[in-house]
Amino acid sequence: MREVIVGAAQLGPIARDEPRTSAVGRMIALLERAAERGCSLVVFPELALTTFFPRWYMEDQSEVDAWFESEMPNAATRPLFERARALGISFYLGYAELTIELGRERRFNTAILVDGKGCIARRYRKVHLPGHAENEPWRAFQHLEKRYFEAGENYFEPADVLGARIALAICNDRRWPEVYREAALRGAEMMLLGYNTPLHYPPAPEHDHLQAFHNHLVMQAGAYQNGMWVVGVAKAGREEGCDLIGQSSIIAPTGEIVAMCSTLGDELAVATCDLDRCAEIRANVFNFRRHRRPKMYPLLSTDPDEWRPLHE
Ligand code: CDT
């Protein structure tokens, strides 16, 4: 058995005027609880330092940039890094990243995996950015990720942390089956995912009552079909008038939910994850080498603009 005790550290709402130091303080409180329960890995949500700012249309770039971090750790987050290192806990943290690369400013929706020594073992930039790029006033609230972020261009390569192969993804990524499969083909045994998911989906409100179902559906399928642990962690509750789903969960490679938050506030759900259980699935029904037929799926990694009918 190769066991990792994992804490899914759900956050309740973060107010627009709540300083990062307050959010970090709440995360440190969850970290302390996780330590008491023996966790060596704690997962925080997507964009965990601030409110979910893509719900507002902003034209002034300096107003947008106030939501971003240009270094990590920084003054606000250093106490979290230091407390986690003192406790020997690895953690996943989502935040808005502003960086200078290729000679220009670049902005990403980012998650990092920090190891028990306080070093960043993997930085992942969200690949699937949902929403829209222009103001759409007919919506009850905006979802402007396509305006404020560039899409990440990193593969789903797992990091070796805690004797486990751990991959990262962020929120909307969890709805795409290719994400889990790519990570699994790269040897991932666990997928960490933070999310902010509104209960109301303006383009198709007839699906609002299915939000929590779809949340679990995609993560449980991803876990089972790839024989990996999945840890999905919400920022939940009524945030600036917008309801965000909760149900942060730890899901076994069999697809079963083994721990779940039951509130919409700051809460910790804990499970002992035996990494060797991945083999129950991967040595059998989803033995990739034995049963996959990659030559039959050529369109899966083809750009849509290049699609051609198979028999043209
Ligand atoms: N943060 C994020 O990616 N949220 C999306 C909302 C639905 S698409 C507008 C999600 O997939 O949960």
Strand-pairing-aware structural class: alpha/beta
Report how far apart the termini are: 51 Å
CATH class: Alpha Beta
Biggest sheet, open or closed, and with what strands and sense? 6 strands, mixed
The poorly predicted ranges are: none
Helical proportion, percent range: 10-25%
Structure description:
The protein has 312 residues and is an alpha/beta fold. It has 8 helices and 14 strands. Strand 4 and strand 5 form a beta hairpin. The model has no long low-confidence stretch (mean pLDDT 97). It binds 4-methylsulfanyl-2-ureido-butyric acid (CDT). 4-methylsulfanyl-2-ureido-butyric acid binds next to loops.
Topology:
Layout: E1 3-10, H1 20-36, E2 41-43, H2 61-65, H3 78-87, E3 90-101, E4 104-114, E5 120-125, H4 145-148, E6 159-161, E7 164-170, H5 177-185, E8 190-195, H6 211-226, E9 229-234, E10 237-239, E11 242-244, E12 249-251, E13 257-260, E14 267-274, H7 278-282, H8 288-291
Parallel strand pairs: 1-2, 2-3, 7-8, 8-9
Antiparallel strand pairs: 1-14, 3-4, 4-5, 6-7, 9-12, 10-11, 12-13
Helix pairs in contact: 1-3, 5-6
The chain binds 4-methylsulfanyl-2-ureido-butyric acid (CDT).
